[in-house]
Design goal:
Structural class: alpha/beta
Strand content: 15-25%
Order of helices and strands: HHEEEHEHEHHHEHEEHEEEHEHHHHHH
Largest sheet: 7 strands, mixed
Radius of gyration: 23 Å
Helix content: 40-55%
Distance between the termini: 45 Å
CATH superfamily of the largest domain: NAD(P)-binding Rossmann-like Domain
Shape: globular
Number of helices: 16
CATH topology of the largest domain: Rossmann fold
């Protein structure tokens, strides 16, 4: 699932922006400002691997847009990290945040390593030293730049970042310097599944539009839709899990070691357990092994979800894609040239700019929680319980009947932080989809991606104009 060395992710990203900008009235200078990265930090730092052996590692942090602060974006540990990739990802973050009305500028970071080749202790050294470099350059902090997990990192690395930052800056809001932390370290319930859950919400909205589904020859709703997922990491797993729970049939799963396919459907949790125990997705039950895994992208299905890395659907395989809907759960999985082929073939693409926004949305909730220093719902929890009980008592008194047990339980059930996070994310994805879809219809566009970029450009442009930078 690697990317071709000649592929230029940043060039493609700029082409997407330029194309969308043609449908706006903003001056060229403003569009160039919106496209351009404000700050690019590249640095090298040493890591002592063992006695007498030192490696010099390459790190990056790109703050793409300062139209809103703090900037926000993940940190990835990958051997594919380079300046242009990180800049492209930071650029997408600016537009992603604007699209879903999360008040951050975009950023991204990375260290050029294969994390599988390093021990836990070595990864901790790398993470803490990387954080120290960010602190020295004044590009991390609750009001400046707030990292999060990305490919190759997770809650553990975010805890190391928070702890390192606190050692240098023991301030009252210091814990808000990073999101995606463990719950025990002021994280938020629901962050781990946020991006995958956002993918589910976005696809649910898309397949609910009767006109669009009729054009594809599909019924509305997720029930019975055949889904193939590329990548069974955090995003792919939760996306597949929630889709399956809503009636979709997961027929294929691809990973770097290969793929598996079963037309009768796969049990997502069982597949995940099999991979955890065996170290490979292959040889699961009665499923057919598919090698290389890229072949699985060309299998017949209703929905294809690339949830791995960028540059997965290219001009080389776009003509062979049989899915009717592509849900871009990863960042940049479809190249610009491939999209043209897919659109001409009538394939419906839900762009990464929208579909991948669940992570940053819930990161925003975590950041707010950290700044307020109180769990979501804690202040109003008891009041809501009493109000719900009063409503139940009033209904039963007026009707002279007791409510059915499941109705009563639903009304009286305590709303947890995870429930509130899910509700907030659901509302965010519904609103952003409606705005994006309306723009596509109004502008008579074929691509939802162009509509998403138009909406984001308009929102970022307003911020710059309000700052007085542009008339």
């Amino acid at each position: 699932m690697g990317k071709a060395s000649e592929y230029d992710f940043l060039h493609d990203t700029h082409e997407f922006i330029d194309y969308a900008a043609r449908f706006t009235d903003h001056p060229t200078g403003l569009i160039e400002q919106i496209k351009t990265a404000n700050s690019i930090y590249k640095f090298n730092f040493p890591l002592r691997i063992e006695e007498g052996r030192i490696e010099v590692l390459e790190g990056y942090r790109v703050q793409h847009s300062h139209h809103k602060l703090p900037t926000k974006g993940g940190i990835r540990f990958s051997s594919q990290v380079d300046e242009r990739e990180v800049t492209a990802l930071a650029t997408l973050m600016s537009f992603k945040c604007a699209l879903v009305d999360v008040p951050f500028g975009g950023a991204k970071g990375g260290v050029k390593i294969n994390p599988r080749k390093y021990s836990v202790e070595q990864r901790e050294k790398i993470t803490r030293r990387y954080t120290t470099e960010l602190i020295r350059k004044n590009c991390i902090g609750p009001a400046l730049d707030v990292p999060a997990p990305d490919y190759g990192t997770g809650a553990r690395e975010m805890a190391w970042i928070a702890d390192t930052y606190l050692a240098f800056k023991p301030e009252i809001n210091a814990i808000a310097c990073v999101t995606g932390k463990p719950l025990t370290q002021s994280g938020i319930a629901g962050r781990a599944e946020a991006t995958g859950m956002g993918v589910y919400f976005g696809l649910r909205e898309a397949v609910g539009v009767k006109k669009d589904m009729q054009a594809l020859g599909l019924q509305t709703g997720l029930d019975g839709k055949r889904v193939i997922v590329q990548g069974l990491g955090n995003v792919g797993y939760f996306a597949a899990k929630y889709l399956q729970e809503d009636g979709a049939l997961i027929t294929g799963v691809a990973e770097y070691e290969g793929g598996i396919y079963d037309a009768d459907g796969l049990d997502v949790d069982a597949v995940f357990k099999h991979r955890s125990e065996s170290g490979s997705i292959l040889n699961y039950g009665n499923a057919q092994n598919i090698e290389p895994s890229q072949k699985l992208l060309e299998f017949d299905c209703d929905i294809l979800i690339p949830a791995a890395l960028e540059d997965q659907i290219t001009p080389e395989n776009a003509a062979d894609i049989k899915a009717k809907i592509i849900g871009e759960a990863a960042n940049g999985p479809t190249t610009r040239d491939a999209e043209k082929i897919l659109i001409d073939r009538g394939i419906y693409i839900l762009p990464d700019l929208y579909l991948n926004a669940g992570g940053v949305t819930v990161s925003y909730f975590e950041w707010l929680k950290n700044l307020s220093r109180v769990s979501l719902g804690r202040l109003e929890k008891r009041h809501e319980e009493q109000t719900s009980r009063t409503i139940v008592d009033a209904i039963e008194s007026a009707s002279g009947k007791c409510l059915e047990e499941h109705h009563r339980d639903q009304l009286l059930r305590e709303r947890s932080e995870r429930d509130l996070v899910r509700s907030g994310l659901d509302n965010t994805m519904i609103t952003a989809f409606a705005q994006m879809h309306e723009t596509r219809e109004r502008k008579n566009l074929k691509e939802l991606r162009a509509a998403a970029f138009i909406n984001a450009i308009d929102k970022i442009a307003i911020s710059y104009m309000d700052l007085g930078i542009f008339p």
